Amino acid sequence: MFDFLAEENASICGGSHLKRREFLQIGALGSVGLSLPQLLAAKEHGAVKPGHDNRACIMIFNLGAPSHVDLWDMKPDAPREIRGPFKPIRTKSPDIDISEILPMHAKVADKFSLVRTVHHGGAAVHDAGWQIMQTGRRFSGGVQTPHAGAVASYLLGRKSDLPPFVVLPELMGRGGGNMPNGQAGGFLGKAHDPFALNADPSKKGFKVPDLLPPDQIGAARLD
Prior knowledge:
This protein has seven helices and four strands; from the N terminus they run αααββαααββα. By secondary structure, it is mainly alpha-helical.
């Protein structure tokens, strides 16, 4: 188990001193015996030193996609009904084969790592999975656990005029259950809720909403 408080130069997300394995272990707070309140308390006492660089963390959370055995964890020797219709291809990393439908990823496979052991034991409901995978905890009512982005916002603070935690294109809706989707600031407060873009950057004419006045409000009304 990684002892977070024993690492003199440890930091979260923005820091440069965490090893990849240690960062992944910290991400599963509940499984390594370190609760989020303990982590925040450590920050208050100076045990967690914020980073001083401008790196950012991007979390891509797909609401729908092919199975992992059709993408990242091919099973070419499995029976036909298990291995699926796609074939594995070689990548730029000699240790990684991925699906033929990911040729661009294959070209940069030496730049990323695959973690094939991520899972959860929650109910077979989308909402439960979303909550656990984004906050590290099951929702049991009452105060919500904050999203990983909200934790980064709290620990690292605002480095510029840009929001420290952004969700795009929009917040997730309900997925068949009746629980929060895990994308809010939770008990850290509204100040660490994400800025939801509510627009698709891939569409023509894209612009960030609410940065400019509506078209029906002319310059004369703003003077």
